[in-house]
C-alpha cells in the first residue's frame, strides 16, 4: 500500500510535467541503497522468531531492547554523532524502564497466556539471534536515515524502501507458506485492511520523523507509543502495578533528560543534529 501511494504520487508529478522519463528516473535512481535496509529488517524479523523459540519470555523481552543501545553506537561510526555521558545514561535508563514495563506482572501474564514455550530450547542460539536482530534493526535504521537525508525526493526513497521491503517479505512468504499466491489474502477482513492502512500511514510518518530528526529520536517516539499502549488499558482496568509505574517514570524521565541536550556531530562544535535535520528537511 505504501509502495502504491508513493509510486502514484511520483507518477502524478511526472504527468503534470509531461515528462514520464522523469518519473522512472525518480523511482530507479539510487534504488540499490534501499535494498540493504529492507534485507536487514527481513533478516531481523527471522532472527526474532528464532529468539522467541529458544528463549523464555523474560530474556527475550530484555534482549529485544538491544537496538536502543546499538543504534547510537552505530550512529557514532556512520553518522559522526557525538553523545555525552548523560546521553548514555539516558539510553540505559530508557532501556531499563521499558524492560520494567514489559516484565511487569500484568503485561507478562497477558503475554505468557498467549504464547506457548517449546519443550526444547537453545539459550545460546536464542541470545545470539536476538543480539544479531538488534544489530540488524539498528544498522537498517542508520542506513535508512542516510537515505532519507540524501538529495533524492522523499517519495522516491519511500517507494524504493517499500518495494524492496515487499520483495523481501514476499520471498520469505513463498518459501515458508504452503498456501501459495492464491491464499495470500485468505482471512483478510475490513479490520485487517484497516490495520494495513494504519501501518502504511505509520511508515510515512516514521520516514518523515527519521528525515527530520534521526533514528535515535524515532526509537524514542516508539518508546512513548509503547508506554501509552501498555498503560492506557491497565488504567482502564484498574490493574496498574507499582513496577509498571516505576518503569514508565524511568523511561519518561530519561526521555526528558535526553531532550535537554541534543547530541552533536563530531568535529562540528555546537552544531546540533537538529540543525543537520533542518538541512535534510530542505533537501527532502
Topology:
Elements: H1 2-17, H2 20-28, H3 32-54, H4 57-63, H5 67-78, E1 81-82, H6 85-102, H7 105-113, H8 123-148, H9 154-176, H10 190-212, H11 215-236, H12 242-259, E2 264-265, H13 273-283
Antiparallel strand pairs: 1-2
InterPro entries: EmrE-like (IPR037185), Nuc_sug_transpt (IPR007271)
Pfam families: Nuc_sug_transp (PF04142)
Transmembrane segments: 57-79, 86-104, 124-141, 161-179, 191-212
Commentary on this structure:
By secondary structure, this protein is mainly α. The chain has helices spanning 2-17, 20-28, 32-54, 57-63, 67-78, 85-102, 105-113, 123-148, 154-176, 190-212, 215-236, 242-259, 273-283; strands spanning 81-82, 264-265. It has a two-stranded antiparallel sheet with strand order 1-2. Helix 3 crosses helix 9 and helix 11 packs antiparallel against helix 12. The two termini are 21 Å apart.
Q: Could you give a short account of the major beta sheet? A: 2 strands, antiparallel
Number of domains: 1
**What proportion of the residues form beta strands (DSSP E)?**
under 5%
Order of helices and strands: HHHHHEHHHHHHHEH
Region (Disordered): 263-284
GO molecular function, one term: pyrimidine nucleotide-sugar transmembrane transporter activity
Protein name: UDP-galactose transporter
Organism: Aspergillus mulundensis
Key words describing this protein structure:
284 residues; mainly alpha; two-stranded antiparallel sheet; 13 helices; globular; EmrE-like
